[in-house]
Amino acid sequence: MSDIHSPLGQGKKRNKRGGSRFRAYSWMGPAVVVAGIAGIAGFLARGNGGMFRSPAPPPSQENVAASSVISASKPRSSIERPSGSASGPAIIKVAPDMPASFNGVGINDPSKAGQNLRVAHLPDAELIEVSPVGPLPVRGADGRRPLDVYARAWSGARGARVAIVIGGLGLSQTGTQNAIRQLPEEVTLAFAPQGNSLQRWMQAARQRGHEILMQVPLEPFDYPRVDPGRNTLTVERGSEKNVADLHWALSRVTNYTGVMNYMGARFTADAGSLTPVMREIGRRGLLYLDDGTSARSQADAVAAEQATPFAAADLTLDAAHERGDILKKLDELERIARAKGTAIATGAAFPATVEAIALWANEAKARGIEIVPVSALVRDPERE
């Protein structure tokens, strides 16, 4: 056995003619050389250049999460927490010099989008503005948008693509839990602002890989007999009150890419009422999804005028709550996607809807249909 393979200090015979003393001195020359080299390397590593700087140990998961939320070294922001909250992610108060819009050109690679799932539930500190009603999404100082940062990755291929958006999360604990657990991660989830435990459910959805939206209650034609809920945006209340109500809905949760209407046939038919709301959505770097339930909606034209990223659903999945009917709608969604390349469907987190989508999705993937996040199918002026 060679010396290099022998156990240290074992298996060696003593030299009868003072060989041990010779070996004790014979390695001193190389050792001096090695020590000298190590000393020089240490000096350089401590210098400004750090040419031989040792790699830092890999950060713990907790440190990764914390660094993704807090950038306390930047003088333009300060760390705050919501009142009454002793724990949870910190919120960065953004200085008022943050630009309201970004005129640069963004290069977007859809396969590189998305956050690491270990920290996807934590808001990006640079995309949060503290307001009297709570944290609001905002563009970063470098022009990054929530639409880009919180988007789920997809392949970027040009085959038949469908986006499925399931809303009403947060209204039922059981329904929300089942939707997050059972739906394929490619399905986009939309949260109702009147829901409970929204922060908890948002975190669960993001850690499962879902892209999420925030629903905003808009006035239907038979309002208030049919009431979408608290802080509904209405035609009569005017732009200032409507933007304030929009902010309330936006503040209910974080880490979403955009907004989807909840009801709103009358409101979306009135371009004058819709315009300031659509402008505010685009200004904050969000998309707007029209759920496709109103033929009189002006959302498409208004979004184009305001340069707000926009998409509209092609069909609603669960007007009938039977699994067989929902599967037929999903087959129709597939036919639309094969005919025009893309298609979007909306639905609610009913048990039959969740079950049907979970069953259909695997079969559709085997037939070459790609399920993508809704952000992949928006008309986006800043990417065109």
Q: Outline of this structure?
A:
With 384 residues, this protein is of the alpha/beta class. Helix content is 34%, strand content 16%.
β-strand number = 13
Element-by-element helix/strand order: HHHEEEEHEHEHEHEHHEHEEHEHE
What integer is the average pLDDT?
A: 80
CATH superfamily of one domain: Glycoside hydrolase/deacetylase
What is the C-level CATH assignment of one domain? Alpha Beta
Percent strand: 15-25%
Organism: Phyllobacterium leguminum
Protein name: Divergent polysaccharide deacetylase family protein
Pfam family, one: Polysacc_deac_2
InterPro entries: Divergent_DAC (IPR006837), Glyco_hydro/deAcase_b/a-brl (IPR011330)
Describe the protein in words.
With 384 residues, the protein is of the alpha/beta class. It has a domain at 155-377: TIM Barrel. It is 34% helix and 16% strand. The chain contains twelve helices and 13 strands. Strands 5, 6, 7, 8, 9, 10, 11, 12 and 13 form a nine-stranded parallel beta sheet that branches. A two-stranded antiparallel ribbon has the order 1-2. A hairpin with a 2-residue loop joins strand 3 (128-131) and strand 4. The longest helix is centred in the N-terminal third of the chain and has 19 residues, at 28-46. The chain is globular. The relative contact order is 0.12.
List descriptors.
single chain, 384 residues, alpha/beta, TIM Barrel, two-stranded antiparallel sheet, 34% helix, globular
